[in-house]
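Researcher: We're teaching a course module on how sequence relates to structure. For the next exercise, students receive a sequence and then see the predicted structure as tokens, so they can try to spot secondary structure elements on their own. Here is the exercise chain.
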Amino acid sequence: MVRVKHSCDSILLGDLLVPFETRISAPYSLRPPLNLFGDPSGKPVGRIFLTRDHNDLLARDQIVYVDLGAEDNVAPGQYLTIFRPLGKGNLFINDEDESVSARDEGFQSDEYRGGKFSNQAARKYGSSADRKVVTTEAAKQYRPEGLRKVVGEAMVVNVRERTATVVITRTSQEVHPGDWVEIQ
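Model: And here is the predicted structure for the students to work with:
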């Protein structure tokens, strides 16, 4: 017979019980500003593979699970950088018939001409505007390898052999399952 004294979530018939583990919280520390384009640390890299409550959009104070664990020398209290690799194009794959360039015409304002101010609009190449017009896709073609955008930071709260439970502590934008993590 078991008596439940405290629960963090609903308990359903058939749920498994394990002995209670006393855990010590990591102390709070003042963190430096989040560097959105920080260089990799060279330490192990993993991914967010599961979220508590199965959310697709994640923010601060949410629990996630990563595929880094004790085998990767992860310890409670360590911080992880959450990032996405920067590719040579958009985050989303567009249909080839759709376009978001300055040449699109239609619903823009007569005064500002809408699409011509888009970050996907064509632009002049080089430091001076006297060269040919280049599209965003062509401009991104020559990016160096390994660029990434930091979207958040998380702290490890529990570690198992190959996985860890972490809490997201800071974000610069939404975090998604599948985003990459790296030990700081």
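Model: If you want an answer key for the exercise: The chain is about 5% helix and 25% strand. The beta strands are 45-51, 63-66, 79-85, 123-124, 133-134, 148-159, 164-171, 180-183.
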